[in-house]
Amino acid sequence: MYLHRPAASLIAPLLICALAGCGASDEDMDEPSDAEVLPGDPGFQRDPALNVDNISAAAEKRSHNMGQNCMGCHQPHGPGKGLFTAAGTVYAPSGTPVAGGTVELRTAAQGEGDLVLSVAIDGNGNFFTTEPLPFPDEALFFFLRAPAGGGTNNMPFPSISGACNLCHNEQRRILLE
Asked: What is the mean pLDDT of residues 123-150?
């Protein structure tokens, strides 16, 4: 049986390259590059000019990414305009986004209790606000009102987060008739 053995002149450069990291310095190996820092990472550098008021308005269609977690970008380590305190997408039972209506944040269930904030559902079915809210120190109940006096819906238990689409994903959408 014949085994091919590389010439000794090829082994030395390969061994040196392996031991030396083929030109990569220790810094290159340990530190992530700027391209690897993603939104949500504490190393993400947010432009302070993005920290502005940003609140949904009825019939407006400037929002995007229906059904996705809005807080993924609209947070202290993200590239979204405004630091959202509550945001999500409201759907009709048919699966289409509801255009119009309001989301109320209250101190008690079933639409009762003190109104803390009312946010319009925009023309794309999204609602969002940068208004200060007491999360996570105080829990609030979410209550929805359809446009033109239509149906209502509510979350029967309080939440300490306004990142609605984090839980209300494609399998558990926020529904309103």
From this structure: 95
Q: What is the CATH number of the domain that holds 74?
A: 2.60.40.1120
Give the closest residue to 130 by CA, choosing from 84, 71, 162. 84
CA–centroid distance for 112 within its chain: 29
Query: Bigger pLDDT: 36 or 154?
Result: 154
Kindly provide the b/e burial profile for residues 135-150, where b requires at least 16 CB atoms within 10 angstroms of the residue's own CB: beeeebbbbbbbeeee
Across-strand partners of 91?
Answer: 97, 175
Beta bridge partners of 126: 89
Helix (H) or strand (E) holding 87: strand 86-91
* Alpha-carbon gap, residue 164 to 90, rounded angstroms: 10
- Per the structure, the complete domain to which residue 72 belongs is given by 50-177
- The answer to whether the CB of 165 falls within 8 A of the CB of 97 is no
Measure the CA–CA gap between 98 and 122, rounded to whole angstroms. 8
Q: What angle do CA 71, 61, 109 make, to 5 degrees?
A: 55
Q: Count how many domains the chain has.
A: 1
Is residue 103 included in any domain, yes or no? yes
State pLDDT tens for residues 37-59: 999 999 999 999 999 999 999 99
Enter the pTM of the model: 0.78
Distance CA 68, CA 63 (A): 12
Distance of CA 56 to the CA centre of its chain: 16
